[in-house]
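Figure-free illustration: sequence to structure, shown twice.
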Amino acid sequence: MATHLNLLLGGLFYSATLFLVACGLQLIFGVQKIVNLTCGSFYALGAYFGITVAGLVLPLGWPPQLVLLALVVGGAAAGLVAIPLERLLRPVYRRDPSYQLLLTFGLLLMFQDVFRFFWGATPQTIDGSLYAAFGFVDLQGSLVAVYNLIVIAASAFIAIALWAFLQRTRLGRIVRATAENRQMTEAMGVNTSRIFTAVFAIGCMLGTLGGALVAPTTAASLEMSAELVVAAFAVVVIGGLGSMFGALAGAVIVGLMKIASLIFYPEAEVLAIYLVVLAVLLFKPEGLLGRKTV
């Protein structure tokens, strides 16, 4: 029972970081209709930046709470690289999706070379003392890492804050109006180019933040970009393209399926997720919470 609880919380931790990336992917697609394959690269960028920031502040003897704050700020700041990249993507906004896929896939490959240039080909890690510094709590006889609970809570808070921003603020309503009808929004005097830049930056910052939060628990490597892209698109397919609640539901399903596979049949860990994707594509192609477009 204790082992299963640890695995369950581990699955929710994975879901929490995966949700941030998929949420950014959904936000960008929902407003700009761009299928952004570089979402995995931003996740890796956040992880590398987080490791670099932690390496700078840990020797200063900062308490773990401040180190985590620096990690979050550094990870989010790394997402600002999205501003010049958004300008690069503008020529393909109104073109066939194949152009978008080719351009963003090319950017993903370029990011891998950037990572190799600045951080080398060897996986980078943070001193394990940061993860352990937050301690453990006893839940039903199982020792659970407090850091995992912090990340799960942070992801839930971000989901609620993003929903409140889109539904309850003036800027959020403008973003939703731009997603529904760009031409009408422009006719009402809204600078949609700025909205696109802001949305793309927010979406990418969610990805880099997810990478920074996961950095204390894993190594940043050149392969993590491609691995995360596959998982993020599985989440999007399951939840429904363009649906924020779909991203949340899809991330939880993927995380729990991953853990269920580890408990009952570890060899089928990857296969189980794609069986769910296949079932959704066959019986509900628009996703569990997506809208039909026909």
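We now fold a second protein in the same way, so the two outputs can be compared directly.
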Amino acid sequence: MATDAHRDFKNRLYAQFARIGKTLGSPHRLELLELLGQGERTVDSLAGEIGASIANVSQHLQALRQAALVEGRKQGQFVYYHLADPAISDLCRALRTVSERRLAELDRLVRDHFGDRSGEPVSMQELLKRARSADVVILDTRPANEYEAGHIAGAISVPVADLRRRLKELPKTKEYVAYCRGPYCVYADQAVELLQAKGRRARRLLEGFPEWRAAGLPVETGAPPAR
């Protein structure tokens, strides 16, 4: 009898774990969690980001909400969604790490897409050591709202879409380290390519802001100072 009760407990236990696994079994939902790891977003902005309809994104968010992975708050006519727990970002990183280690197709996909990335990337520990140098400028190339939600301490906000027109603000005497959402985000690569083409010394951070924050390294929130 006790054995039957324990077996029933185990079945029900793993069924609960499987709820999370089942919910994560969607490329769109995984991408939505990655985006919400940068800061809270509305359905409209998420739909525009991943190229899906508002109705489709709403359905995915409801599934994530039912699995207790995201939460929402109402402000005016909009609902702003955010991760329900910082551990969810850890879960996404663990999934990515296992995929990187075990799936050869993933490695081919990344190499085919990014090719030979510009220069040797900067690790988080290297950047931490060099961040105090007046000669090193840290560029946050994500959209401004993500910078405001949280950024590497001391970084300046230069969304990659604005970089070309703001080049005059970035003297050639400095060295630049650009970062964005994570290792598969293209913003930092695009920024480094443009900066190097315009005669600046530039490298990208190997990881992104979520990894920096998860490592307990210095972060700040708030809008950049007015120029």
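Summary for the second example: The mean pLDDT is 93.
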